[in-house]
């Protein structure tokens, strides 16, 4: 296994410089239809003029200056580009080119047409553990490659696990969205409060130094959901969810896990471990008996076990509804923010902007509440 850290910081930094082209993107690519849009830009279908190959183009608006609130910081785009340019794996979204002008950056990325893995699974009538494992194996292979490159994703969740083409006989898994990813360098300590509440590891909530083990916790949560249709730590609020994670408050309820093999439960238990150093690595996961059976008995047990499709379909429907609700809610908050900015001073605008900036801020606020109340309890004892 490759060492987690390379020995020379300077070599790591020099080899990981993001490469931007100053050419006009339209000279090399024919710009097609809009595939999606957001606050900071849009995704369009693009066709490479030289080869006719179809890609997706992410057109991202950059901030015009330090005081500008519209657009992305160039540094954050540069970090994501650097990471994606260094990751070339069948199960990771490919980045082909990056173009930069004064106002925007254009990322030419792999066009992934198969939709989300969970949506694909939810369309099935039944699914054995053996079939589910074929998808898990691909996810683990992508994550293992990433971790060998000293990169952690930090936002692994169903929305970021896609299929290249769901109509293919054996569709490839594609891990996407590296906006929160980080490359570890020897001697540097990295902390973050980012992520999606039900998938983040306890060390993120506790604001402890992080490593690639945080991704493995997320894999444990995803596997638990895939098999049962139940989220292990989900509470009524984000605060309650985070409290459940810190307290390791989860169990294998018989009603949801009646069809699940003991090997699958063991796999999950070795990932949902509070101590980072005791958590299975991606490499260890790939040789766990649930993923790689040691004998015919283990293979037979896997084949007899299946995922709880009835409950999984319900979970996926709720998840999609919540995604739609959050999108509408975020748009409404953004519209209100624009109106407020017209009548408030700069300091009030900045405060309002901080509290309406989405998931990362929400996790930070909820985490502060959890830690604050835990501290209150400790002081009252």
UniProtKB/TrEMBL annotation:
Nucleotide-binding: is it a keyword of this entry? yes
Name the InterPro entries for this protein.
Kinase-like_dom_sf, Prot_kinase_dom, Protein_kinase_ATP_BS, Ser/Thr_kinase_AS
**Family annotation (PROSITE patterns):** PROTEIN_KINASE_ATP, PROTEIN_KINASE_DOM, PROTEIN_KINASE_ST
Which domain of life does the UniProt lineage start with?
A: Eukaryota
What GO terms are given for molecular function? kinase activity
Q: Which residues are ATP-binding?
A: 58
The record places domain Protein kinase at 29-291
Q: Which UniProt keywords apply?
A: ATP-binding, Kinase, Nucleotide-binding, Serine/threonine-protein kinase, Transferase
Indicate whether ATP-binding appears among the record's keywords.
yes
Q: Which PANTHER family match?
A: PROTEIN KINASE DOMAIN-CONTAINING PROTEIN (PTHR24342:SF19), SERINE/THREONINE-PROTEIN KINASE 17 (PTHR24342)
Q: Which family does it belong to?
A: Belongs to the protein kinase superfamily.
Official protein name in the record: Death-associated protein kinase 2
Its lineage opens with: Eukaryota, Metazoa, Chordata, Craniata, Vertebrata
